[in-house]
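Sequence of DnaA family protein (Simiduia aestuariiviva).
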Amino acid sequence: MTQIQMAIPQQLPLGIGLNDDARFDNFYLSEHSANRFALCAVRELLNPEGERFVTLWGGPGRSHLAQALCVESADLGWQVQYLPLRAVRDYAFEPDAVHSLLAGLEHMDLVCLDDVDAIAGMSAWELGLFHLFNRLRDAGVPLLITSEENPAHLNIGLADLQSRLQWGLSCQLHALTDAEKTEALQRRAEARGLQLPDEVASFIIQRVPRDMNLLFSVLDRLDRASLQEKRKLTIPFVKQVLGH
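Predicted 3D structure, token representation.
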């Protein structure tokens, strides 16, 4: 796991890990996926002549693409900062603390701000990000922003930050259909040497909340159980493992 260490105010250490398994080539896309444009837009940030600011919002997969961008740019030797705002926002409340957290990011080769919607209404964070955006623009540093909601519709109190959240290219990620989730699970299983029949994949999707992170976590659990008990993935075995 690629580790990025940050100095948190009050000397609280925070190790933020990038998932090395997050790659562009294992981001699921069906043949006619509406998410193909979003993937291309994120990858374009690796192009020195490409778009400098990209916003990714909407359905699942935002953090996967953000981390894939960071991992693959780090593989190129870039200095990268990945900042999951939902995880770090509570470490800093006052403007000076936020400034300390964001200081120097304009010297990176790439910055990713995950879950910018998490700081909406937090005045210290809004002001800190406003100044950060200006510094990144002046330095020409590429920036990826992710948000659950369209940033244009966030309840941002600082109008100047609201305008900067609309810089660059805005891309929506669309939720997967059940058929696409089935195929995504089967591809992930195949990569692990598992056979996941259609009926078993459908059974899992019908009984687990349809969030891809949860579905992949369930697949991880089934993978471990299958190895331990030397069992194939069948509906009775899945019922046994999941307690359904």
